[in-house]
Amino acid sequence: MKLLYKTTLNFFPAMTFILAVAGLSLYLLLRQEVTDEINEQLELQVELIEEELAAGRSINFPLASVSEMPFSSAASKRLGDTLIYDRLQDKKEGYYYLTITKKINQRNYHIMVMTSYIGWERYYKTIFISFLAVAFGITLMGVLLNYYSNHNLWKPFFLNLENLKQFSVSSSQPLQWHDSSVTEFKELQQSLKELTERSRREYLALREFTENASHEIQTPLGIIQSKLDRMSQLEVSEEMARYIVQAKSGVERLTKMNKNLLLLAKLDNKAFVEKQPIELKELLRKHLEQMDDLFIARKITLVIDMTSLTVFANQYLCEVLLSNLLSNALRYSFSPSEVSIVLTSHQLIITNPGELLDFPEQGLFDRFTKGWSHTQGTGLGLAIVRQICVLNGWTISYSYQKGCHSFKVSFP
Amino acid sequence: MKVLLIEDEPMLLDEMDTYLTEQGYRCEKATTFGVGEDKIVLYEYDVIILDITLPGGNGLQLLQLLKKLQKEAGVLIVSAKDSLTDKLAGLNLGADDYMTKPFHLEELNARVNALVRRKSFKGSPQIVVDDLIIDPIAKTVSCNGTFIALTRKEFELLLYFIINKNRVVSKQSIAEHLWGDHYDSVDNFDTVYVHTMNLRKKIIAHAGIDYIKTVYGMGYKFTSM
After folding, report:
1. Residues in a beta bridge with B100
2. Closest residue to A323, CB basis, from B11, B15, B182
3. Which residue in A has a C-alpha nearest to residue B84's C-alpha?
């Protein structure tokens, strides 16, 4: 739930409680006050009537009745309420009355004074309605105020949040922060700023490390390789020769892997900036020519259908892309089989029959993903392909249908 | 043929020195920028093999020096950095070729050989092995006056063997030479075998001599009398 809704929702019960308590106490206090006042008024009226009676004048008060009692009775005073029919409204209305039995000038009188009151239900209703109106008004205003002021207050926060969602350590663009006058937000912004800068710095250091490490490994590898070459020049036993060959193939794999890692590091570092128009058909033909005998040796027939397509990209990366995809097809095709290479005006599709992947398909383009049956590869070829595609804004997709692997590169 | 090796890694330097000396080059060595600089200024070389990262300076500066002194030497850069910018900078500064470590010595030798052919002879030097005459420019091989029909790959293979004659050339080295290092050479060993056998048969058929020997597991060796 959004913070804005949450605060508004919390605001509701609090408002309801306060207003209910206020309404109830208002009702009770008013009732108390009004009752006291009515009593006072009724008593005053009785007093006035008594004075009149004492003076011997006739009584002509509204809503008052005086009757002379034939017998003497103890003086009494009673307060109560009753319903009296109102002709005008054609219904019964509530009245307060005060009856007094008193001896005035040696005569017994029974005096009753009355006054009407608005029914308490009505008081209650009026108060309830007006409070409901107040509650509604306050809530509406509260919500609006809350919403708009909060909206403004939180705006830098949300913008920064959006910013943070876009953040990537590999992006070279610095984040644009939105300033806020709220201290907490300022602190948050400052911490985020430091955090993102630090992670970017560390990422860069790591990238640089990868590249440097790969470079540093090249020379010792060169030494091992040249020494192994030298050893193979000597007269050695068959057993020794086998060990040398095995060591060489290890060095070979390490060399290849190191080169590929270095290439990936460079792709991450966006080291390939020089771009030029490249005729893919030509480049593809060159590679196919180069690999011709390799396909023949594996009894693979190539079905080629190419149209002219020019892309604007780095020459070297295009070559790597093509050779990686082609050597992939070469390596993982059945022998004999038929490999199809289709280049349309916006797509390159390489389809080769081969065994189903023995690992999850979504890991195909990840680094170091290899099937258990093919441990010779570096597991970096397709990761490089994907990286090159990403760098150029191309999309690569893979599918396996009817026993065929199919790689599709789409050029926008 | 005088070759100057400027390389700070002594073990690699020794290996290059030994092999190129075996191939008939006169090699001199420099392990630092300063020594390299002195030698370049004082002497003339046919080929300079130059490492870029050197103690005391950058190899590219030596290239500039060579250019300034208008030296004729062919320059082959050997770098641990597989960097395109370095490569372009090097070639722009007048280097003739660029290799990335690690490399096969046979490949280095082939490159030096190609460089020497390009630089010093200008024309079309023919390589003669007994009755075989190889023309690297026209890409032809003849034996006693008759041409041997070789495919492009077979020709490249033969040239590679001859340049590295009397040395065991590994399958890796051949695969990399023939198809570049884009491909995993292990996959291509069978094809190396097929090409080598075809080449061998063709040469035996024409010259009657089996020059190419299989060295168990390791590779092949071209032996001339």
Report:
1. B79
2. B182
3. A272
Q: Given an 8 Å threshold on Cβ–Cβ distance, is A218 in contact with B105? A: no
Tens digits of residue pLDDT in B152-182: 889 999 999 998 888 899 888 898 888 876 6
Q: Domains in chain B: how many in total?
A: 2
Does residue A335 form part of some domain? yes
Of A294-298, A349-353, B174-178, give the range with the top mean pLDDT. Answer: A349-353
CA-to-CA separations, A139 to A14, A22, A143, A151, in angstroms, rounded: 10, 15, 6, 17
Tell if the CB–CB gap between B170 and A229 is shorter than 8 Å.
Answer: yes
Backbone dihedral region for residue A151 (phi beyond 0: left; psi -120 to 50: alpha; all else: beta): alpha
Give A-chain residues touching B186 at CB under 8 angstroms.
Answer: 249, 252, 376
A161: pLDDT strictly greater than 90: no
- Which one of A114, A134, A154 terminates a domain? A134
CA distance A331 to A346: 26
Kindly report the nearest CA distance between residue A388 and chain B, in angstroms.
15
**Cα distance from B69 to chain A (closest Cα, Å)?**
30
Tell me: do A292 and A392 sit in the same domain: yes
Q: Would residue A149 count as lying in a domain?
A: no
Nearest-angstrom CA–CA distance, B202 and B150: 8
Q: What is the pLDDT of residues B32-83, one digit of tens each?
A: 999 999 999 999 898 999 998 889 888 889 989 988 888 888 899 998 876 6
- In chain A, % helix, strand, coil (3-state, to 5) comes to 55, 20, 25
Domain limit, last residue, from B121, B143, B167: B121
pTM more than 0.80: no
Residues 6+ apart with CB under 8 A from A338: A300, A301, A302, A303, A353
- One domain for residues B8 and B110: yes
CB–CB of B104 and A225 under 8 A? yes
Give CA angle at A284 (A278, A289), nearest 5°: 135
User: Nearest residue on chain B to A286, judged by CA atoms?
Assistant: B179
Cα separation, B167 vs B23, in Å, equals 10
Name chain B contacts of A324, Cβ cutoff 8 Å: 182
Strand partners, A311: A278
- In this predicted complex, what is the ipTM? 0.83
Looking at residue B80, what DSSP letter applies? S
- Nearest chain A Cα distance for residue B36, angstroms: 19
